[in-house]
Structures are given as structure tokens and as C-alpha cells.
Design a protein that fits this description.
This protein is an alpha/beta fold. It has 19 helices and 9 strands. The strands form 3 sheets. The protein has a 5-stranded mixed beta sheet with strand order 5-4-7-9-8. Strands 1-6 form a two-stranded antiparallel ribbon. A two-stranded antiparallel ribbon has the order 2-3. The relative contact order is 0.13. The N terminus is likely disordered.
Length: 521
């Protein structure tokens, strides 16, 4: 049996200190989540509304009238399985906070464990993963994928730890992780695949004492657990979306920037500069080294990233999600000699400075955005229970700015608070288990598209769209309320004959729909 070369003695912080730092960093990174029960993340409110429906249907008569659940083999189920269970002992908002913090703990713990698997000892250096937990991909609210990143880090860690042990255990554990990652997110399974491929390439080039044919056989066999994905995918309704893909060169640089960008570019540049300067100092004093996995990891992930389409299986930002996950693997490949007291103190200062600045940035912006969050929840109180709510945009470009992301699906709060039908709720076959019942399925977006603009509504107020049926056709006959998002302050009523203003917030308006009189009346 091949044994890895002995690792030279390495000095690091004591394990209790590392554990204490982990707890401290986890406490700091939790502050924005715990102080904002409804974080301003794009898809978050929509996902949370689906979790609520899963938890209360069929006990809620209004939601049961509008929605049904269609359980299936989907590569997007982790939230659907966990949060409704947590909701049994707490509120849906607290359950969402617990799930989010669990994602953070998984990713940070996975980075620590991967470093341990690579270098043979625990280190404080992987705690640098904490400042990266808040990033532009997280702001989109892809919570199943985020959970999957943490699980993929643990999957790669166990593969490495079991790599030189009898193969049945290694393959059994890897198969279990592949299946679990599939149900987190298909892209999360791909992250594990990229990491494993890079590691096996590294071993293929390093294990020269093993005959080449055997090395090639071991290399190829590492991909066998991923064969489980194909039958699962073919048994899934997601397979029906396999033709909805397209590649887009624009945005590849943005995907890399998403790793460090959150709200302020100047902060991202400053934090990057601090890390680069600290790394340069450590290299100059021969205190920093990297694992041989780093080079193949960068090459493999870079090639995959450039080749990936922007949309895969009708899922947007497919390629731009990858760099964030790879960044945590890169952190795990770095080791710093913490022998001297000055170096240990310097590392602690850099870690806490990075984390404090990042958490402070998020907390500051979320405190500002909480003004519309509170206002939006007040507006939901104006909605009659069991209503049908249409969502439209005043500005077609709304939601492009990071500060606008929290408004994109905020109307889904009406599903939680008022058991309402909301047109933007995720009900796409092959993506979610939530379905709208007839006849309401013709009145909601089942394609995960953009909401109509106010101009679109005015055109289809009295007759259907000439280009084909739209779910908002003849909207005054079907809907009780209209949310208009991304409005200017004091925006005029777009249709005073059919709309009565009920509530106005900083960037939105809620209208009550005045339904046309029926022929009988």
C-alpha cells in the first residue's frame, strides 16, 4: 500500500485555540443573520415561502386551494427537507436563520477539514474562509447550492482521508456524498467532481513509485461514484430542462469578482490588498507554502469555468457560482508557519480585521435596507387573507443592483403571512416541488421569468396579449392586489380606474385591484 511522504513538523495554534477562534468567527459572521430575520437576499423570501407551504399544507385551506406539492427526484431539495422539520419547533423565519447559519458552519468546517486532510494536522489558517462567506453569490439566495458547497468540501476531505485505505470504504462514502450532493444541487455535485478530479491529477503525477497502468486505473475509478448522477437525473423531471442551456462570455470576470464583492467595491479591493500584502510578507519570510493540489485545482476549475454555459438546465448563473466554491478549496491548500509569536498575532489581527470589515459592511447595508423590509411587512398586513397577488415592475431593470435584490421576491411574504397566491412564487416543473392548482396555474409564472412591467399590464387589461397568452392577461378579473416594485418616490397611480393605492414604500407600491363589474350585475 502506498504511503504519503512524511510531513515535516509544522507549528500552528493549539487545537483549543483554533476551536475557540472558530466559535468566535462563527459568532461574528452570525450577527447580520440573527439581527435580520428576513435578510435582503434575492431568492430567499421565495424559498422561505415554499418552506412554509410544505410545513402547513394541507392544514391551511387557502394555501391548499392555491398550491399542491409534487414530490419528485429533484437536484434542489435540501431546504425542502430540512427547514420544514426545523419549523415544527420554531417560526419559519427562525428556521431560515438556523439553516443559513448551518450553511456557514458547514462551509467553514469543511474548509478546516479539507486542510486537515491535505496537511495532516489542524490549522487556524483555513479560518480565512469566514470573511468569504458573505459574497455576491450568497446575495442571490441560492441556499441549496450554498449548503452543497459545505457538503462538497467534506466529501473531498473524506476522499483524501480514505484515499490510501481499502477502496470499499472510500467508494461507499463517496457514493453517499454524491447522492446527498445531488439532492442539494446538481452544481454542488459538480464542485465535488472538480475538486476530486484535481486531487487525482495531483496524485497521478506524484505517485511515481506506482506503475503507470495502475495509477491510471486508480485515476479513472475515482469517477465511478458520479455515475449515480445519470440515473437520478434521468428519473427526475429536471431532465426535461436539459435542452435549456446557453453559453455567454460576458460575465466571466464578474463571476471571479463575486468571490470578494458584496456591496462596496472599495472594500473588496481593500480586503484583497490586505490578503495579498500579508501573503507577500509570509512568502518573503518563507512562512507560507501551498499544497501541490493548488496548481491542478486552479487549472481544472479554470478550464471548467471557461467552458461552462451561463445557463444549464434552465438555471441561471451556472458558471458564475463555481469560483466561490473553488475559493474555499484554495484557502484549504494554504499553510502558514505560525511558530513565532509575532506571526501568530499578525495572523489573528489579519483574520479578525478581514472578518470585522466584511461583517460591518453587510450589517451597515442591511440596517439601511431594513427600512423597506419593515415597510414591506407592514404592507403585507393590508392584504386580505386568501387573496391573489400580482407582481409587476415599474422599472424593467429593477433588481440589477445588489441593494435591490431583497425586493425581487419580497411579495412572497404574503404567502407566509396571508396565505395568498403570489405570481412570482417558484413553481417551475423540474426545479421545485411546489405547483399551483388549476385554474390558478394559468395565473402564475411557471417559467421563472421576469415579472411584467406596468406597461405590459395596461396593454392586457381588457384583452389577452396578441403574441400569446400571458399569466397576467385580463388581470383585473383575476387578481385582488398588485405590487409594483422599483418605483420612484411619489409615483403616480398607473391605472386609477382599476387600482386603488393601499400602501407606498420607498421602492414599491401596493394597490388593491378594482375588479370590473360582472355582466350579471
Amino acid at each position: 500500500m502506498h504511503r504519503p511522504p512524511p510531513v515535516r513538523p509544522h507549528h500552528d495554534l493549539p487545537r483549543p485555540v483554533i476551536a475557540l477562534l472558530f466559535v468566535l468567527c462563527m459568532a461574528l459572521v452570525s450577527i447580520p443573520i440573527l439581527t435580520h430575520p428576513l435578510p435582503p437576499l434575492s431568492d430567499y423570501a421565495n424559498h422561505l415561502a415554499r418552506m412554509h407551504v410544505i410545513a402547513v399544507v394541507p392544514g391551511d385551506p387557502d394555501l391548499s386551494r392555491f398550491y399542491r406539492l409534487e414530490w419528485a427526484i429533484l437536484p434542489n431539495l435540501m431546504m425542502d427537507l430540512l427547514i420544514p422539520l426545523i419549523d415544527k419547533v420554531t417560526s419559519i423565519y427562525v428556521a431560515g436563520e438556523i439553516y443559513t447559519l448551518l450553511c456557514f458552519a458547514l462551509i467553514a468546517g469543511g474548509t478546516l477539514t479539507l486542510h486537515r486532510a491535505l496537511f495532516g494536522g489542524w490549522s487556524a489558517v483555513p479560518l480565512l474562509a469566514f470573511p468569504l462567506l458573505y459574497n455576491a453569490v450568497f446575495l442571490v439566495g441560492v441556499m441549496n447550492y450554498y449548503f452543497g458547497i459545505g457538503l462538497a468540501l467534506f466529501a473531498l476531505s473524506f476522499w483524501i482521508l480514505l484515499r490510501d485505505r481499502p477502496w470499499p470504504a472510500r467508494f461507499a462514502v463517496s457514493c453517499a456524498f454524491v447522492v446527498a450532493l445531488f439532492f442539494c444541487h446538481l452544481f454542488a455535485a459538480g464542485v465535488y467532481g472538480v475538486g476530486l478530479l484535481a486531487y487525482e491529477i495531483d496524485r497521478l503525477t506524484r505517485d511515481r513509485a506506482i506503475p503507470l497502468p495502475r495509477r491510471i486505473a486508480i485515476f479513472v475509478s475515482g469517477g465511478l461514484p458520479f455515475a449515480l448522477i445519470l440515473p437520478l437525473l434521468m428519473a427526475s423531471p429536471t431532465w426535461g430542462l436539459s435542452g435549456e442551456n446557453y453559453w455567454e462570455p460576458k460575465g466571466k470576470v464578474d463571476g471571479v469578482e463575486f468571490v470578494v464583492n458584496v456591496y462596496y467595491d472599495v472594500i473588496a479591493v481593500a480586503l484583497t490588498a490586505i490578503v495579498v500584502l500579508a501573503a507577500a510578507w509570509a512568502i518573503r519570510h518563507r512562512l507560507l507554502k501551498v499544497h501541490s493540489l493548488l496548481l491542478p485545482l486552479v487549472l481544472v476549475s479554470g478550464a471548467v469555468y471557461l467552458a461552462m454555459p451561463r445557463v444549464i438546465f434552465a438555471t441561471y448563473m451556472a458558471d458564475q457560482r463555481l469560483p466561490v466554491a473553488i475559493a474555499f478549496m484554495v484557502v484549504a491548500t494554504i499553510q502558514v508557519e505560525l511558530r513565532h509569536r509575532l506571526v501568530r498575532r499578525g495572523f489573528g489581527v489579519v483574520l479578525l480585521l478581514l472578518l470585522a470589515v466584511r461583517v460591518g459592511e453587510v450589517q451597515l447595508v442591511w440596517d439601511q435596507l431594513s427600512q423597506w423590509t419593515v415597510a414591506f411587512r407592514e404592507s403585507v398586513e393590508k392584504i386580505r387573507p386568501g387573496s391573489q397577488v400580482l407582481v409587476a415592475y415599474a422599472d424593467p431593470q429593477g433588481g440589477a443592483d445588489a441593494r435591490d435584490l431583497g425586493l425581487v421576491h419580497a411579495a412572497c411574504l404574503a404567502m407566509i403571512e396571508k396565505s395568498a397566491l403570489v405570481t412570482t412564487a417558484f413553481t417551475v416543473e423540474g426545479k421545485q416541488i411546489l405547483r399551483a392548482r388549476p385554474p390558478y396555474n394559468a395565473r402564475v409564472d411557471t417559467q421563472d421569468g421576469s415579472p411584467p412591467t406596468v406597461a405590459d399590464l395596461l396593454v392586457t387589461e381588457e384583452e389577452p396579449a396578441a403574441s400569446g397568452p400571458r399569466f397576467w392577461d385580463l388581470w383585473p378579473q383575476h387578481f385582488d392586489y398588485l405590487y409594483v416594485l422599483y418605483t420612484d418616490p411619489g409615483a403616480a397611480n398607473p391605472d386609477s380606474d382599476r387600482l386603488q393605492l393601499v400602501f407606498e414604500g420607498e421602492r414599491f407600491q401596493l394597490y388593491k385591484v378594482i375588479r370590473p363589474a360582472s355582466p350579471a350585475s
